[in-house]
Each structure stands twice: as C-alpha cells, then as structure tokens.
Specification:
The complex is a heterodimer of chains A (about 110) and B (about 120). Chain A is mainly β. Chain A has no helices and nine strands. Chain B has no helices and eleven strands. Chain B is globular and about 40 Å long. The mean pLDDT of chain B is about 95. The chains are: A mainly beta (about 110), B mainly beta (about 120).
Chain lengths: ~110, ~120
C-alpha cells in the first residue's frame, strides 16, 4: 500500500487560515469515511484532531475542521496561532482492512 | 483515566526479535468497544501503521511487515504485545501503542512511545 500524499510543508501568519490536503485513491479515502488527522509536537505522541472525516473530539478547538472530496481529504485550521506549529498527519482505512498514513506536513506559523 | 504504557528493551541486535508490551489501565482489552494496535515512527520521519487486534476477532497487519509481525493479547495482565522478527536498522523507531474506537477512525488514546534502536 502506498502512503497518502501530503504537502511536505505549509506556512501561514497568525490569524490566517491554512488547508492541508491528503490525497489517496479509491481504495482508501475515496471509498471510506474513516479519515483522521493528528497533530504532533516535537518529542510528543500524536494527538487526534479530526476523526471520520469531519468529527472533532471534545476538547479540540473548533478552529480545526475536516472535509473530503473524492480521493482527497483536507484539514483546515482557521485563526492560526503560534501553538499550531508542528507536524500533521492524515490516516485512512483501506480496502484491505489496513490503515495508511500520509507522509506528514510541517506547519510553520510565521 | 485510561493510560497505555509501552515497555520492552530499548536496544535490539540485528536479526533478533523486537518485543514490546503495552499495559492498559482503567479499561479492558476484552471490550468490544475498542481495537488495540501499534504505530511506529523512525527518527525524523513520519508515522507508520504496524497493525491492530480486536479481542475475539481478527488481527490485521501492514502488508510490508506482515511476514515478520505478530500482535497478541494477554488478558490476565490486560496487556497486548508486539513481536517483530528479524529486526534490522530500518526498524529503529519510536513505537506507540494505541487504542482505536470500534467502527471509527478515532484513535483516542496513545502511549507515550518508546524508542527501540536496532544495533549491534
């Protein structure tokens, strides 16, 4: 199975909105609503931001939102804050009952 | 509050077996509400799904690791384990044990992670 495709890096200024894309195939993102997004800060375990495409766990800021169109899922962060800087990973269920991650996106807050 | 704690050797010799255990507190691995699994992250690289198990159900593995990996449960200790045979330097990574809610992509609880280095 091939990793999902994410941009290696994105950046934005405080207060702006940014979107991170995650592109898969009809064997994963395109056929299942089991897409999740994780934030990871250096030296820490990942933390879930979004699950099942667009659901946000309690305690996660509503500045984070998820969506999907065709084979591509997206994570949008609005009102960018310095604390949002870190690495972001998407993850999807696949047609072989396995899971696959994206390569990760490094977010820089300018 | 649920906690997951990884344990095991931090150093493994090449060609030997990498073995880790995840101890689950405040919840039962027999619960039908959750799947239990492992995810790893080589130094400076991204996350890689290793596999997961569901008590009383099937176990699934990353195709690239399937020939070398086993995930199993010890219900008497409320633990689940990872075994990765024929370890190489490419298996050097931080290993996380993770809980995922059944019927969802929600991995709601992660261990702190443990670094395993494969080196002679």
């Amino acid at each position: 199975q091939s990793a999902l495709t994410q941009p290696a890096s994105v950046s934005g200024s405080p207060g702006q909105s940014i979107t991170i894309s995650c592109t898969g195939t009809s064997s994963d993102i395109g056929n299942y609503n089991y897409v999740s997004w994780y934030q990871q800060h250096p030296g820490k375990a990942p933390n879930v931001l979004i699950y099942d495409v667009s659901n946000r766990p309690s305690g996660v800021s509503n500045r984070f939102s998820g969506s999907k169109s065709g084979n591509t899922a997206s994570l949008t962060i609005s009102g960018l804050q310095a604390e949002d800087e870190g690495d972001y990973y998407c993850n999807s269920y696949t047609s072989t009952s396995t899971w696959v991650f994206g390569g990760g996106t490094k977010l820089t807050v300018l | 509050q649920l906690q997951l704690q990884e344990s095991g050797p931090g150093l493994v010799k090449p060609s030997e077996t990498l073995s880790l255990t995840c101890t689950v507190s405040s919840d039962s691995i027999r619960s039908s509400s959750y799947h239990w699994g492992w995810i790893r992250q080589p130094p400076g690289k991204g996350l890689e799904w290793i596999g997961n198990m569901y008590f009383g159900g099937s176990t699934y593995y990353n195709p690239s690791l399937k020939s070398r990996v086993t995930i199993s449960a010890d219900t008497s200790k409320n633990q689940f384990s990872l075994r990765l045979t024929s370890a190489t330097a490419a298996d050097t990574a931080v290993y996380y044990c993770v809980r995922r809610r059944t019927g969802s992509s929600w991995r709601d609880c992660w261990g702190q992670g443990t670094l395993v280095t494969v080196s002679s």
